[in-house]
Design a protein that fits this description.
The chain is an all-alpha fold and about 300 residues long. It is about 75% helix and about 0% strand. The chain has 13 helices and 2 strands, in the order H-E-E-H-H-H-H-H-H-H-H-H-H-H-H. The radius of gyration is 27 Å and the shape is flat. The two termini are about 45 Å apart. The model has no long low-confidence stretch (mean pLDDT about 85).
């Protein structure tokens, strides 16, 4: 009788324990989720609201903004300037992301192949490049590409190319070239360290077996290394695209040095609309559009994660 009573008690307690275990993970992440909702939800909601309003001179004197619905979006998508910014931003983003991934993967493979001493020196150099403040980095590169006393012009001229007083920042293409050098130089360490961490998980026995079977270095890379580090490559590529799509400081500082016409990307154009022209409605509408583009870039990775979890 006592055994039956104990079994009944245990059977009644077990569902409660199971429910508590199922609820515990959600209780642990609830505070962080609430902080994210408050910290990110309010700015996003304000942007969505502001993108449907009209701000002008009267609003600077206290008059409430006027609701215009989707007029800001229609005006944005029917303006040639906006599409020029979109084209330049996407091109700049993709070029920088491809270059950064290629160089970063190459450095990761190099760190995985060299000895401990050389690898340590390479890692320290990459870490120093990564840790430098962006303002200091851009300032140094502006000095290097200075058209009067820059080291780059001097070195290229000494090599037999006529780059005397060549103004790199005098044209939009030159500005993008210098910005690409800066962005890639600052982004490569993150890619290199992330991919190298993934390479350390590749089994040496599998690589040796493939080498003994006659697989070339290219075949081992494409058939063994890439499939094993694909999750790392996917998330690093996605983050790099998002960061390059929203680049602001590098372009803005180069523009301050000498701004050519039609050199704005998403970040600087939104800044020019919102801060420069006080057109908060158009700036908010363009910000929402950039958010949509970012989500579209992220969909493939999110669907991949959902498929793997299922």
């Amino acid at each position: 009788m006592r055994t039956q009573r104990k079994a009944a008690t245990l059977s009644a307690v077990r569902p409660a324990v199971t429910r508590r275990k199922q609820f515990s993970p959600y209780a642990l992440i609830l505070p962080a989720a609430l902080v994210l909702v408050v910290a990110m939800g309010y700015p996003l909601a304000w942007q969505l609201w502001a993108s449907t309003m009209k701000f002008g001179l009267a609003q600077q004197f206290g008059k409430p903004p006027e609701f215009v619905g989707l007029d800001n979006y229609i005006s944005m998508f029917t303006t040639a300037t906006t599409w020029g910014v979109v084209a330049r931003s996407l091109a700049f983003c993709l070029v920088n992301a491809v270059l950064t991934m290629a160089i970063g993967i190459g450095l990761a493979l190099l760190m995985n192949a060299v000895g401990k001493a050389v690898r340590l020196i390479l890692q320290v150099c990459l870490l120093l490049a990564w840790a430098m403040p962006v303002v200091a980095v851009v300032t140094v590169w502006i000095w290097l590409f200075d058209w009067r006393r820059g080291v780059v012009n001097s070195v290229l001229t000494d090599l037999g190319m006529n780059f005397t007083n060549h103004n790199w920042l005098g044209s939009a293409l030159g500005l993008y070239f210098v910005a690409t050098v800066i962005v890639v130089w600052m982004s490569v360490p993150f890619v290199a360290f992330s991919v190298y961490a993934g390479l350390t998980q590749v089994s040496e026995e599998v690589m040796e077996a493939a080498s003994l079977d006659g697989a070339s270095a290219v075949r081992r890379f494409t058939s063994i290394i890439v499939p094993m580090v694909r999750p790392v490559l996917m998330i690093v590529s996605l983050l790099q695209i998002i960061w390059d799509l929203r680049v602001f400081t590098q372009i803005r500082m180069l523009q301050d040095a000498q701004m050519p016409l039609d050199s704005d990307l998403f970040g600087t154009y939104i800044y020019r609309l919102g801060v420069g022209a006080s057109d908060f409605s158009m700036a908010s509408a363009l910000s929402v559009f950039v958010l949509v583009i970012t989500i579209l870039f992220s969909i493939a990775y999110v669907l991949k994660l959902v498929k793997e979890d299922s």
